[in-house]
Amino acid sequence: MNKEFASMSKKSTATNDASIAIFERLESEVRGYIRSFPILFDRGLGTTLIDADGREYLDFFAGAGALNYGHNNPAFKQPLLDYIERYGIVHGLDLATCAKKAFIEAFERYILKSRGLTYKLQFTGPTGANAVEAALKLARLMTGRSNIVSFTNSFHGVSVGSLAATGNKKYRTAAGFPLAHVTSLPYDGYLGPSLDTIDYFEKLLNDPSSGLDKPAAVILEAVQGEGGINPASFQWLQRLRDLTARHGILMILDDIQAGIGRTGKFFSFEAAEIVPDIVTLSKSLSAIGTPMSLVLLKPELDVWSPSAHSGTFRGNNLAFVTARAALETYWADSKFEDEIARKSAILAEELKSIAKDFPSLGLTVRGRGLMYGLVFQKHHSLPVQISREALRRGLLIETCGGHNEVLRFLVALTIAEADLRRGLSIVRDSIGAVQDTMAKSLAEATPGIEVDT
Ligand code: PLP
Prior knowledge:
Bound molecules: pyridoxal-5'-phosphate
């Protein structure tokens, strides 16, 4: 660990009270992650978090994919401090600033040119949902069609437009009125391994009686995050690209969670060798956790008239500074991709070994890069219990999937190999502990019967 960080007083200097009662008293019931991790966090570096009492935690959640480079990565902290020190513009609407210019130049150089991509850049409001809203609006504006196709188990945000394209009932119900103009179709594998859902989509498109209104666009994640870590096969992605191109339907690739190196390359769709028409980016784009979003669009789709889509916070210059530093530090060559591939192999191998060692739980492993899930198809309630057990042992790990049936591994891409192995060993122990508890309570409930968990 960094010497300065290690030598700092571990206890918070900001408060003497490590309780979170005030959040429970004053913050709305809508609170989410704080319920999984009811701890007063104070500081973080890399994959280490320290709470107000000075206890250390290992972070296997990485801000739901917003901290791919870890907490307070020193490579970005100094440029940020320097920028603030010299009174660099912080808020800039969509004005031209030196920080924004330097980011655009770096993005063109390290990301677009090296991949032969010619996208134009649209800066939107700072959240992922803001980028998705802009992408959907643009597709409708461009084609004059209102319907959008999204896929089962997708998550694209909770603002009304993006929510209509999101699958999970929990979020949809909260809208308070019917969500319209989106048709949900089966994602890759949704109907089992023997049915290619692209065939089904194509049949609907070709059948004038199918009831499917021709969509302006499809919106998809190449690896679904919130929906349960579902990677689409490269072949499915290629077939979808081909289908949409033939039918004049735009392809919006939502790379908000799976992008910025998460699945092994900067973009999640690169390995499938497809080029979407529109790409949404957010989360780890700013590199240090400050909000920033971006829509990439093919130049011929740039039908916006000036200021037709606006927003006060499209110019987070602090985010431009750190985002540029990240591109220069990690994406100037292929070393980082190699590093991700190495750690991905460790993660996948260890998860397979865990699955093998708990045969009665019927676990499966799925994912790509450093975006993996351990799936508890037989016991949906276990991942939440394992996450709680892991927290007691000093590890933050979240769940996902429609029934929270997936234990989700979103480690920082920069994680040290030793920390990766240490966290995985905590997961293994936590599964063991939860399995033992389950076996004990089953045995108590059914005395005299041998229990198979
Ligand atoms: N799209 C995807 C794929 C996401 O994973 C998320 C958030 O998890 C969003 C969109 C929405 O981003 P935000 O929560 O910043 O609005």
